[in-house]
Amino acid sequence: SMGGLLCVWRKIPPLIAIPTTAGTGSETTIAALVTDSKTRHKSAIMDLHLIPLYAVLDPELTLGLPTHITASTGMDALTHAVEAYLCWTYSTQESTSFAEEAVAIIFKYLEKAYLDGNNIEARQQMQIAAYLAGFAFTRSGVGNIHAIAHTLGGLYNMPHGLANAIILPIVLEDYGHRVYKKLAKLARIAGLGKDESDEEAAKLFIAEIRAMNTRMGIGTSFDCIRDADVEQMAKWAYKECNPLYPVPVLFDIDHYKKLIERIRPPRIMRITELCTGCTACTRVCPVFAISGNRGERHVINAERCVACGVCGRVCPVSAIVDRDGVPLARLPRPLWPVPSINEEECSACGICVMLCGPQALRIQPPKEKGDILVSAELYEPQKCTGCGICADNCPLDAISMVSREAASPEAVAVKAGAL
After folding, report:
1. Whether pLDDT at 373 is above 60
2. I want to staple 356 with a disulfide (CB 3.0 to 4.6 A). Which of 108, 162, 212, 361 is the partner?
3. Which residues contact 368 (CB under 8 A, 6 or more apart)?
4. pLDDT tier for residue 372 given thresholds of 50, 70 and 90
Protein backbone atom coordinates (compact mmCIF):
# COMPACT_ATOMS: atom_id res chain seq x y z
CA SER A 1 0.00 0.00 0.00
CA MET A 2 3.00 2.31 0.38
CA GLY A 3 4.43 1.49 -3.04
CA GLY A 4 5.12 4.39 -5.38
CA LEU A 5 5.72 8.04 -4.63
CA LEU A 6 4.78 9.88 -1.40
CA CYS A 7 2.55 7.14 0.05
CA VAL A 8 4.13 6.71 3.51
CA TRP A 9 2.32 9.71 5.06
CA ARG A 10 3.79 9.27 8.55
CA LYS A 11 7.12 10.17 10.12
CA ILE A 12 9.39 7.26 11.00
CA PRO A 13 11.56 6.96 14.14
CA PRO A 14 14.90 8.80 13.96
CA LEU A 15 17.14 6.94 11.48
CA ILE A 16 20.94 7.08 11.37
CA ALA A 17 22.37 5.31 8.31
CA ILE A 18 25.87 3.79 8.39
CA PRO A 19 26.65 2.21 4.99
CA THR A 20 28.94 -0.82 4.83
CA THR A 21 29.23 -0.72 1.03
CA ALA A 22 29.87 2.15 -1.36
CA GLY A 23 27.14 2.10 -3.95
CA THR A 24 23.48 2.27 -3.02
CA GLY A 25 23.49 5.75 -1.53
CA SER A 26 20.63 4.63 0.72
CA GLU A 27 22.00 6.80 3.50
CA THR A 28 20.68 9.88 1.69
CA THR A 29 17.80 8.65 -0.47
CA ILE A 30 14.02 8.65 -0.23
CA ALA A 31 13.83 5.08 -1.50
CA ALA A 32 13.22 1.68 0.04
CA LEU A 33 12.50 -1.59 -1.73
CA VAL A 34 10.37 -4.57 -0.81
CA THR A 35 9.92 -7.85 -2.69
CA ASP A 36 6.57 -9.63 -2.64
CA SER A 37 7.44 -13.21 -1.63
CA LYS A 38 4.59 -14.64 -3.72
CA THR A 39 4.79 -12.70 -7.00
CA ARG A 40 8.54 -11.89 -6.74
CA HIS A 41 7.67 -8.32 -7.73
CA LYS A 42 10.15 -5.80 -6.37
CA SER A 43 8.33 -2.57 -5.47
CA ALA A 44 9.86 0.81 -4.75
CA ILE A 45 8.64 2.91 -1.83
CA MET A 46 9.67 6.55 -2.23
CA ASP A 47 8.85 9.19 0.34
CA LEU A 48 10.63 12.11 2.02
CA HIS A 49 9.89 10.52 5.39
CA LEU A 50 12.43 7.80 4.58
CA ILE A 51 15.44 10.10 4.33
CA PRO A 52 17.83 9.27 7.21
CA LEU A 53 18.41 11.95 9.81
CA TYR A 54 22.19 11.43 9.70
CA ALA A 55 24.64 9.53 7.53
CA VAL A 56 27.95 8.25 8.92
CA LEU A 57 30.50 7.52 6.19
CA ASP A 58 33.26 5.38 7.72
CA PRO A 59 35.55 3.89 5.05
CA GLU A 60 37.00 1.37 7.53
CA LEU A 61 33.64 -0.43 7.46
CA THR A 62 34.16 -1.17 3.75
CA LEU A 63 37.71 -2.53 3.96
CA GLY A 64 36.45 -6.11 4.12
CA LEU A 65 34.31 -5.90 0.99
CA PRO A 66 35.06 -8.73 -1.49
CA THR A 67 36.22 -7.56 -4.90
CA HIS A 68 33.04 -8.56 -6.73
CA ILE A 69 30.89 -6.56 -4.29
CA THR A 70 33.27 -3.60 -4.53
CA ALA A 71 32.85 -3.71 -8.31
CA SER A 72 29.07 -4.13 -8.47
CA THR A 73 28.24 -1.58 -5.76
CA GLY A 74 30.63 0.90 -7.34
CA MET A 75 28.90 0.50 -10.70
CA ASP A 76 25.59 0.91 -8.89
CA ALA A 77 26.77 4.34 -7.73
CA LEU A 78 27.85 5.18 -11.29
CA THR A 79 24.40 4.18 -12.56
CA HIS A 80 22.76 6.46 -9.99
CA ALA A 81 24.92 9.39 -11.05
CA VAL A 82 24.43 8.84 -14.79
CA GLU A 83 20.67 8.28 -14.62
CA ALA A 84 20.23 11.31 -12.37
CA TYR A 85 22.27 13.38 -14.82
CA LEU A 86 20.14 12.28 -17.78
CA CYS A 87 16.79 12.97 -16.12
CA TRP A 88 15.26 16.09 -17.61
CA THR A 89 12.53 17.33 -15.24
CA TYR A 90 13.46 17.49 -11.59
CA SER A 91 17.19 18.25 -11.69
CA THR A 92 18.66 21.20 -9.83
CA GLN A 93 22.03 22.85 -10.15
CA GLU A 94 23.10 21.08 -6.97
CA SER A 95 21.98 17.59 -8.03
CA THR A 96 23.60 18.04 -11.44
CA SER A 97 26.85 19.13 -9.83
CA PHE A 98 26.78 16.18 -7.42
CA ALA A 99 26.22 13.74 -10.28
CA GLU A 100 29.18 15.15 -12.19
CA GLU A 101 31.41 14.99 -9.11
CA ALA A 102 30.36 11.40 -8.42
CA VAL A 103 31.23 10.33 -11.97
CA ALA A 104 34.67 11.94 -11.73
CA ILE A 105 35.39 10.20 -8.41
CA ILE A 106 34.17 6.78 -9.56
CA PHE A 107 36.25 6.80 -12.72
CA LYS A 108 39.31 7.75 -10.65
CA TYR A 109 38.92 5.56 -7.57
CA LEU A 110 36.62 2.56 -8.20
CA GLU A 111 39.23 0.35 -9.83
CA LYS A 112 41.79 1.39 -7.24
CA ALA A 113 39.45 0.13 -4.53
CA TYR A 114 38.82 -3.02 -6.57
CA LEU A 115 42.54 -3.78 -7.03
CA ASP A 116 43.51 -2.90 -3.46
CA GLY A 117 40.71 -3.35 -0.95
CA ASN A 118 42.82 -1.81 1.82
CA ASN A 119 43.34 1.48 -0.03
CA ILE A 120 41.66 3.69 2.56
CA GLU A 121 41.66 6.77 0.32
CA ALA A 122 39.94 4.91 -2.51
CA ARG A 123 37.42 3.43 -0.08
CA GLN A 124 36.66 6.84 1.39
CA GLN A 125 36.31 8.48 -2.01
CA MET A 126 33.92 5.75 -3.17
CA GLN A 127 31.73 6.29 -0.11
CA ILE A 128 31.63 10.00 -0.92
CA ALA A 129 30.77 9.21 -4.55
CA ALA A 130 27.97 6.87 -3.51
CA TYR A 131 26.58 9.54 -1.19
CA LEU A 132 26.73 12.24 -3.88
CA ALA A 133 25.13 9.95 -6.48
CA GLY A 134 22.43 8.96 -3.98
CA PHE A 135 21.67 12.60 -3.29
CA ALA A 136 21.56 13.35 -7.03
CA PHE A 137 19.10 10.62 -7.96
CA THR A 138 16.91 11.32 -4.93
CA ARG A 139 16.41 14.82 -6.34
CA SER A 140 16.46 14.05 -10.06
CA GLY A 141 15.21 10.46 -10.34
CA VAL A 142 16.44 7.28 -11.97
CA GLY A 143 15.16 5.63 -15.14
CA ASN A 144 14.90 2.68 -17.47
CA ILE A 145 18.04 0.98 -16.16
CA HIS A 146 16.64 0.74 -12.65
CA ALA A 147 13.21 -0.27 -13.89
CA ILE A 148 14.68 -3.33 -15.60
CA ALA A 149 17.16 -4.07 -12.80
CA HIS A 150 14.38 -4.23 -10.21
CA THR A 151 12.65 -7.00 -12.18
CA LEU A 152 15.86 -9.05 -12.06
CA GLY A 153 16.20 -8.49 -8.33
CA GLY A 154 12.65 -9.56 -7.65
CA LEU A 155 12.42 -12.58 -9.92
CA TYR A 156 15.93 -13.99 -9.59
CA ASN A 157 17.38 -12.36 -6.46
CA MET A 158 19.99 -10.71 -8.68
CA PRO A 159 22.25 -8.26 -6.78
CA HIS A 160 21.03 -4.80 -7.71
CA GLY A 161 24.46 -3.32 -8.44
CA LEU A 162 25.37 -6.21 -10.73
CA ALA A 163 22.10 -5.81 -12.62
CA ASN A 164 22.69 -2.07 -13.06
CA ALA A 165 26.28 -2.60 -14.18
CA ILE A 166 25.31 -4.89 -17.06
CA ILE A 167 22.21 -2.97 -18.13
CA LEU A 168 23.82 0.51 -17.95
CA PRO A 169 25.84 0.53 -21.23
CA ILE A 170 23.06 -1.24 -23.15
CA VAL A 171 20.38 1.31 -22.29
CA LEU A 172 22.76 4.26 -22.80
CA GLU A 173 23.59 2.90 -26.24
CA ASP A 174 19.87 2.47 -26.96
CA TYR A 175 19.16 6.13 -26.08
CA GLY A 176 21.34 7.18 -29.04
CA HIS A 177 21.55 10.83 -30.03
CA ARG A 178 19.12 11.90 -27.31
CA VAL A 179 21.90 11.69 -24.71
CA TYR A 180 25.06 12.37 -26.71
CA LYS A 181 25.49 15.93 -25.44
CA LYS A 182 25.15 15.04 -21.75
CA LEU A 183 27.21 11.85 -21.99
CA ALA A 184 29.91 13.78 -23.85
CA LYS A 185 30.15 16.18 -20.92
CA LEU A 186 30.44 13.27 -18.48
CA ALA A 187 33.10 11.72 -20.70
CA ARG A 188 35.20 14.85 -20.55
CA ILE A 189 34.72 15.09 -16.79
CA ALA A 190 35.99 11.50 -16.59
CA GLY A 191 39.02 12.37 -18.73
CA LEU A 192 37.72 10.86 -21.98
CA GLY A 193 37.05 12.33 -25.40
CA LYS A 194 38.51 15.80 -24.97
CA ASP A 195 38.92 16.57 -28.69
CA GLU A 196 36.16 14.37 -30.11
CA SER A 197 32.66 15.36 -31.19
CA ASP A 198 29.79 14.91 -28.75
CA GLU A 199 28.73 11.68 -30.43
CA GLU A 200 32.25 10.27 -30.41
CA ALA A 201 32.83 11.28 -26.78
CA ALA A 202 29.50 9.77 -25.71
CA LYS A 203 30.37 6.50 -27.39
CA LEU A 204 33.78 6.54 -25.72
CA PHE A 205 32.05 6.96 -22.37
CA ILE A 206 29.82 3.95 -23.00
CA ALA A 207 32.77 1.90 -24.26
CA GLU A 208 34.76 2.72 -21.12
CA ILE A 209 31.88 1.56 -18.91
CA ARG A 210 31.96 -1.78 -20.73
CA ALA A 211 35.74 -1.89 -20.37
CA MET A 212 35.51 -1.22 -16.62
CA ASN A 213 32.99 -4.04 -16.28
CA THR A 214 35.33 -6.38 -18.11
CA ARG A 215 38.38 -5.40 -16.05
CA MET A 216 36.43 -6.01 -12.84
CA GLY A 217 35.04 -9.38 -13.89
CA ILE A 218 31.47 -8.22 -14.52
CA GLY A 219 29.76 -10.10 -17.34
CA THR A 220 27.67 -8.87 -20.24
CA SER A 221 24.43 -10.85 -19.86
CA PHE A 222 22.16 -12.81 -17.49
CA ASP A 223 21.61 -16.51 -18.14
CA CYS A 224 18.84 -16.71 -15.51
CA ILE A 225 16.13 -14.97 -17.54
CA ARG A 226 13.49 -17.45 -18.70
CA ASP A 227 11.51 -16.98 -21.90
CA ALA A 228 8.28 -17.21 -19.91
CA ASP A 229 9.32 -14.25 -17.71
CA VAL A 230 10.20 -11.71 -20.41
CA GLU A 231 6.64 -10.46 -20.89
CA GLN A 232 6.12 -9.99 -17.15
CA MET A 233 9.47 -8.24 -16.73
CA ALA A 234 8.62 -5.82 -19.52
CA LYS A 235 5.23 -5.03 -17.95
CA TRP A 236 6.74 -4.45 -14.51
CA ALA A 237 9.48 -2.20 -15.90
CA TYR A 238 6.95 -0.22 -17.93
CA LYS A 239 4.66 0.25 -14.94
CA GLU A 240 7.53 1.39 -12.71
CA CYS A 241 9.06 3.81 -15.17
CA ASN A 242 5.97 5.39 -16.74
CA PRO A 243 5.06 8.10 -15.96
CA LEU A 244 7.11 8.45 -12.76
CA TYR A 245 10.70 8.58 -14.04
CA PRO A 246 11.76 11.64 -16.12
CA VAL A 247 13.77 9.57 -18.61
CA PRO A 248 15.30 10.96 -21.81
CA VAL A 249 13.46 8.35 -23.92
CA LEU A 250 10.12 6.73 -23.12
CA PHE A 251 9.87 3.00 -23.82
CA ASP A 252 6.76 0.95 -24.49
CA ILE A 253 6.40 -2.69 -23.42
CA ASP A 254 7.73 -4.04 -26.73
CA HIS A 255 10.81 -1.84 -26.40
CA TYR A 256 11.47 -3.23 -22.91
CA LYS A 257 11.17 -6.77 -24.27
CA LYS A 258 13.80 -6.02 -26.92
CA LEU A 259 16.13 -4.54 -24.29
CA ILE A 260 15.65 -7.58 -22.05
CA GLU A 261 16.59 -9.83 -24.98
CA ARG A 262 19.81 -7.82 -25.33
CA ILE A 263 20.86 -8.63 -21.76
CA ARG A 264 20.31 -12.38 -22.28
CA PRO A 265 23.01 -14.69 -23.66
CA PRO A 266 22.91 -15.43 -27.39
CA ARG A 267 20.04 -17.71 -28.36
CA ILE A 268 22.06 -20.85 -28.98
CA MET A 269 21.11 -24.50 -28.83
CA ARG A 270 22.95 -27.12 -26.80
CA ILE A 271 23.44 -30.84 -27.44
CA THR A 272 23.11 -33.06 -24.36
CA GLU A 273 24.65 -36.40 -23.49
CA LEU A 274 21.63 -38.14 -25.08
CA CYS A 275 23.18 -37.53 -28.51
CA THR A 276 23.82 -40.75 -30.45
CA GLY A 277 25.95 -39.16 -33.14
CA CYS A 278 23.48 -39.92 -35.93
CA THR A 279 24.59 -36.77 -37.86
CA ALA A 280 21.00 -35.81 -38.77
CA CYS A 281 21.50 -32.36 -37.24
CA THR A 282 24.73 -31.66 -39.10
CA ARG A 283 23.02 -32.33 -42.42
CA VAL A 284 20.25 -29.78 -41.92
CA CYS A 285 21.97 -26.95 -40.01
CA PRO A 286 21.67 -23.94 -42.36
CA VAL A 287 24.72 -22.19 -40.91
CA PHE A 288 26.97 -25.25 -40.52
CA ALA A 289 27.30 -24.69 -36.76
CA ILE A 290 27.26 -28.38 -35.73
CA SER A 291 30.20 -30.76 -35.92
CA GLY A 292 31.04 -34.25 -34.74
CA ASN A 293 31.90 -37.75 -35.93
CA ARG A 294 29.28 -40.41 -36.48
CA GLY A 295 28.58 -42.30 -33.27
CA GLU A 296 30.01 -39.52 -31.07
CA ARG A 297 28.29 -36.68 -29.25
CA HIS A 298 28.11 -33.62 -31.47
CA VAL A 299 28.82 -30.01 -30.46
CA ILE A 300 27.36 -26.66 -31.51
CA ASN A 301 29.60 -23.70 -32.34
CA ALA A 302 28.11 -20.89 -30.24
CA GLU A 303 29.56 -18.20 -32.50
CA ARG A 304 27.77 -19.58 -35.55
CA CYS A 305 24.49 -20.83 -34.06
CA VAL A 306 21.46 -18.64 -34.85
CA ALA A 307 19.02 -20.63 -32.68
CA CYS A 308 16.75 -21.46 -35.59
CA GLY A 309 15.83 -24.81 -34.01
CA VAL A 310 16.13 -26.88 -37.19
CA CYS A 311 18.54 -29.29 -35.51
CA GLY A 312 15.96 -30.10 -32.85
CA ARG A 313 13.32 -30.90 -35.47
CA VAL A 314 15.36 -33.78 -36.85
CA CYS A 315 16.92 -35.14 -33.65
CA PRO A 316 15.42 -38.63 -33.12
CA VAL A 317 16.25 -38.74 -29.38
CA SER A 318 15.46 -35.13 -28.32
CA ALA A 319 19.10 -34.55 -27.42
CA ILE A 320 19.04 -30.85 -28.37
CA VAL A 321 17.78 -28.23 -25.91
CA ASP A 322 17.29 -24.47 -26.01
CA ARG A 323 19.02 -22.02 -23.68
CA ASP A 324 16.38 -22.70 -21.01
CA GLY A 325 17.17 -26.43 -21.15
CA VAL A 326 13.87 -27.35 -22.85
CA PRO A 327 14.20 -30.16 -25.45
CA LEU A 328 13.28 -29.11 -28.97
CA ALA A 329 10.36 -31.02 -30.49
CA ARG A 330 11.03 -33.33 -33.42
CA LEU A 331 8.79 -32.56 -36.42
CA PRO A 332 8.30 -34.37 -39.74
CA ARG A 333 9.51 -32.30 -42.66
CA PRO A 334 6.06 -31.56 -44.15
CA LEU A 335 5.34 -29.57 -40.96
CA TRP A 336 8.42 -27.37 -41.24
CA PRO A 337 7.64 -23.73 -42.17
CA VAL A 338 8.87 -22.13 -45.37
CA PRO A 339 9.29 -18.49 -46.39
CA SER A 340 6.44 -16.63 -48.07
CA ILE A 341 7.69 -13.61 -49.99
CA ASN A 342 5.58 -10.52 -50.58
CA GLU A 343 6.58 -9.62 -54.13
CA GLU A 344 5.22 -6.08 -53.85
CA GLU A 345 7.37 -5.36 -50.78
CA CYS A 346 10.49 -7.26 -51.88
CA SER A 347 13.25 -5.11 -53.38
CA ALA A 348 15.24 -8.07 -54.71
CA CYS A 349 18.24 -6.97 -52.64
CA GLY A 350 19.40 -10.59 -52.46
CA ILE A 351 20.20 -10.67 -48.74
CA CYS A 352 17.93 -13.67 -48.18
CA VAL A 353 19.54 -15.51 -51.09
CA MET A 354 23.04 -14.89 -49.73
CA LEU A 355 22.07 -16.08 -46.24
CA CYS A 356 20.23 -19.21 -47.36
CA GLY A 357 22.58 -22.10 -46.50
CA PRO A 358 20.54 -24.80 -48.31
CA GLN A 359 20.30 -22.50 -51.39
CA ALA A 360 16.53 -22.82 -51.58
CA LEU A 361 15.99 -19.16 -52.56
CA ARG A 362 16.86 -17.20 -55.67
CA ILE A 363 16.08 -13.90 -57.36
CA GLN A 364 13.46 -14.88 -59.90
CA PRO A 365 14.06 -13.90 -63.51
CA PRO A 366 11.81 -11.23 -65.10
CA LYS A 367 8.38 -12.58 -65.98
CA GLU A 368 8.28 -10.54 -69.16
CA LYS A 369 10.97 -9.18 -71.46
CA GLY A 370 12.20 -5.85 -70.18
CA ASP A 371 10.51 -6.25 -66.80
CA ILE A 372 12.72 -4.79 -64.05
CA LEU A 373 10.32 -5.53 -61.18
CA VAL A 374 11.65 -8.78 -59.79
CA SER A 375 11.69 -10.34 -56.35
CA ALA A 376 13.14 -13.25 -54.42
CA GLU A 377 11.35 -16.58 -54.58
CA LEU A 378 11.39 -19.99 -52.92
CA TYR A 379 12.96 -21.79 -55.84
CA GLU A 380 13.52 -25.24 -54.33
CA PRO A 381 11.16 -25.78 -51.39
CA GLN A 382 12.38 -29.33 -50.89
CA LYS A 383 15.75 -27.90 -49.81
CA CYS A 384 14.31 -25.35 -47.34
CA THR A 385 14.90 -26.20 -43.67
CA GLY A 386 12.47 -23.58 -42.36
CA CYS A 387 15.17 -21.89 -40.30
CA GLY A 388 13.70 -18.42 -40.75
CA ILE A 389 17.05 -16.70 -41.26
CA CYS A 390 15.74 -15.06 -44.41
CA ALA A 391 12.72 -13.60 -42.59
CA ASP A 392 14.80 -12.43 -39.61
CA ASN A 393 17.22 -10.54 -41.84
CA CYS A 394 14.92 -9.09 -44.51
CA PRO A 395 15.41 -5.30 -44.32
CA LEU A 396 11.87 -4.64 -45.59
CA ASP A 397 10.04 -7.35 -43.62
CA ALA A 398 8.86 -8.77 -46.93
CA ILE A 399 9.29 -12.38 -45.81
CA SER A 400 7.14 -14.31 -43.37
CA MET A 401 7.31 -17.97 -42.36
CA VAL A 402 4.21 -20.03 -43.20
CA SER A 403 3.28 -23.71 -43.37
CA ARG A 404 4.40 -25.61 -46.44
CA GLU A 405 0.81 -26.31 -47.34
CA ALA A 406 0.04 -22.60 -47.40
CA ALA A 407 3.18 -21.80 -49.34
CA SER A 408 3.05 -24.03 -52.39
CA PRO A 409 1.55 -27.27 -53.72
CA GLU A 410 5.03 -28.55 -54.50
CA ALA A 411 6.02 -28.47 -50.84
CA VAL A 412 3.12 -30.68 -49.87
CA ALA A 413 4.42 -33.36 -52.21
CA VAL A 414 7.28 -34.11 -49.83
CA LYS A 415 6.58 -37.49 -48.27
CA ALA A 416 5.12 -37.39 -44.79
CA GLY A 417 7.67 -38.21 -42.15
CA ALA A 418 10.66 -37.61 -44.42
CA LEU A 419 13.66 -35.89 -42.84
Report:
1. yes
2. 361
3. none
4. low
